[in-house]
Amino acid sequence: MKGLTVWGCIAGLVASSAAATVLLPLDLAELSAAAHTVIYGQVVESAPEWAGDRRIETRVTVVVLARFKGDPGKEVDVMVPGGELGGYRGSVAGTPSFAVGEEAVFFLRRDRGGLLRLVGLQQGVLRVSVTGQGRRVFAPIVEPLSPGVLRTQFVLRAPMALEDFGRRLASVIAETRTEVRR
């Protein structure tokens, strides 16, 4: 019985030290409403750094190519949990990584310290790709393998031109602002 109690305590300690990331799916309206700033931009730098209590975060510098909400200026720094630094690696499930030159729409919110962070981690970045003809589009978002397993932000059945998405996003942001004022 004593051995069982010891193993029970060990299991309790292991379980209590485990951490999890739980993300509630957000649609385009929810992303827009939660964001202080929504921009279309290009990543120009991605640099990991130590954050306060022995955590690694990556500072992603984005040149603003267009703004949909907020007044971001010409460039923004977005803090993303995780990264690799000095032989150490930190990661958080649901956190995107970024490559220099990558283009995306970013849904950003200021934290208590004033730093910009993605709304809903990877949900807060919608990546843009360039077609062979040089058009900027959102690639189709894959539907879940099983119905009801995961609600995606929205499902695109074919690539959508950036200009069309920009009009759709502007409309959603305008509707969100109207609902907030009521």
So what's the CATH class?
Mainly Beta
Number of domains: 1
What's the SSE pattern? HHEEEEEEEEEEH
Query: Which structural class best describes the helix and strand composition?
Result: alpha+beta
The mean pLDDT is: 80
The biggest sheet amounts to: 8 strands, antiparallel
What is the overall silhouette? globular
Low-confidence stretches: 4-18, 141-153
Q: What is the percentage of strand-forming residues? A: 35-45%
CATH topology: OB fold (Dihydrolipoamide Acetyltransferase, E2P)
Number of strands: 10
Cα distance spanning the termini? 63 Å
Query: For this entry, what is the oligomeric state of its chains?
Result: single chain
Number of helical stretches of at least 4 residues:
3
Radius of gyration: 20 Å
Descriptive tags:
eight-stranded antiparallel sheet; alpha+beta; globular; 182 residues; single chain; 3 helices
Secondary structure layout:
Layout: H1 2-17, H2 28-34, E1 37-51, E2 55-69, E3 75-81, E4 83-85, E5 88-90, E6 103-110, E7 116-118, E8 125-130, E9 136-138, E10 160-161, H3 162-181
Antiparallel strand pairs: 1-2, 1-6, 2-3, 4-5, 6-7, 6-8, 8-9, 9-10
Helix pairs in contact: 2-3
Describe the 3D structure.
This protein has 182 residues and is α+β, with helices and mostly antiparallel strands. It has one domain: OB fold (Dihydrolipoamide Acetyltransferase, E2P). It is 24% helix and 36% strand. The chain contains 3 helices and 10 strands. The strands form 2 sheets. Strands 1, 2, 3, 6, 7, 8, 9 and 10 form an 8-stranded antiparallel β-sheet that branches. It has a two-stranded antiparallel ribbon with strand order 4-5. Strand 6 and strand 7 form a beta hairpin. Helix 2 crosses helix 3.
